[in-house]
Amino acid sequence: MKELKFEGMPLAAPIQKALAEKGYTTPSPIQAKAIPVLLEGRDLLACAQTGTGKTAAFALPILNSMLGERKRLHRYEVRNLILTPTRELAVQVAESFSTYGNRIPFEIGLVYGGVSQVPQVRSLKRGLDVLVATTGRLLDLIEQGYIELGGVECFVLDEADRMLDMGFIRDIRKIGELLPRKRQTLFFSATMAPEITKLASTLLHKPEEIRIAPLVTTAEKIDQYIHFVEQKDKLTHLLDMMSRRMKDNP
Ligand code: AMP
After folding, report:
1. ∠ Cα 79 199 66 (to 5°)
2. Which residue has a Cα nearest atom 6 of ligand 1?
3. Residue 52: CB within 6 Å of ligand 1?
4. Strands 154-157 and 208-211, how do they pair?
C-alpha cells in the first residue's frame, strides 16, 4: 500500500509549507486517521497518549478551518477552545498552533492560573480564534464576564483522563453547558475508563472512535528489573550488577 504523506492530505498550502519547514512528511497514525475525519467536521473520540502526535492531529484541521474568508472577531469571543489539564501542556499546545500556523493570520490566547490575569484579559478583549486554557482560570474569567463561549465552533478536551484524575469533572460539565449545541467536539484520552466514556457520551455527537497504541513501547529484547535501593547506594549497586552481568556473559 502507498504510504500516506501530508502532501496527499487536503490541508491548505500555508499549513503544508509549515509542515515541510518542520521536516514533517509523514503523518503519524493518529494524524492519518483523525485529520480526514476532523476536516469533514465530525466529532472524534480518540484514545491516544502524549508522544503520538495528537496535538498536530487537532491543530492542523482547526488551522485549516480558519483559512478563507475571515469573520471579524467580537469582544471576548472565542472560536476554538482547547482545554488542557496543566499549564505546561497549555503552553505546549499554544506553541504548536503558532508553529503550524506561522503563515496564517489568527489570534491565539492562553489562560491559566497562578499568574496575573491582566495580560490574559487584555488578549481576550480583542476576541480569539483559538483559546488554550486550564479549567479553573477559564471558569474564573467566564464568571467575571471576560470570556464568551456561545460562538465556539470547535471544543477540544486534551488528556481528559488526567483532567478527571485531577477532579475537574464538574468544571468540565459546567463549561460544556456554556457551549453552543452546534459545534465540533474532540476528546483525547490515554485511557478509556468507564467515567471517561460516560463524560464523552454527554459531550460528543456520533463521534468517530480512534484507538492508537503508544508509539514509545519498551524494546522487546530488553529484560527489565526493579531493584529498590537507598539513593546513596544506587551507584555501587549499579556497578556491582553490571560487573556481575559481564562476568556471566563475557
Ligand atoms: P504530541 O503527541 O502531540 O505531544 O507530539 C509528540 C512529538 O512528535 C512532538 O514533538 C511533535 O512535534 C512531533 N510530531 C508530531 N507530528 C509529527 C510528524 N508527523 N512527524 C514527525 N514528528 C511529529
Report:
1. 20
2. 51
3. yes
4. unpaired
Q: Maximum CA pair distance of the chain?
A: 72
Whole-angstrom distance, CA of residue 106 vs CA of residue 126: 12
All residue ranges of the chain with pLDDT < 70 are 1-2, 214-222
User: Which cell numbers in the block locate residue 73?
Assistant: 472577531
**Of the candidates 73, 79, 41, which has an alpha carbon nearest to the alpha carbon of residue 180?**
79
Ligand 1 atom at shortest distance from the alpha carbon of 26: 19
Burial tier of 128 (Cβ tally within 10 Å: 0-12, 13-18, 19+): buried
Return the SS3 of 226.
coil
Q: Give the number of other Cβ atoms within 10 Å of residue 95's Cβ.
A: 14
Q: Is the CB of 27 under 6 A from ligand 1?
A: yes
* Ligand 1 atom closest to Cα of residue 54: 3
Task: Write down the mean pLDDT value for the chain.
Answer: 93
Atom of ligand 1 lying closest to residue 48 CA: 2
Q: Does ligand 1 lie within 6 Å of residue 53's CB atom?
A: yes
* DSSP sequence for 101-113: TTTS---EEEE-S
DSSP 7: G
Name the DSSP letter for residue 181: S
| Strand bridging mode 44-47 / 128-133 | unpaired
pLDDT digits (tens, 9 = 90+) for 199-221: 999 999 999 999 987 645 556 66
Which residue(s) pair with 188 in the sheet? 46
How many C-beta atoms surround the C-beta of residue 60 within 10 A? 29
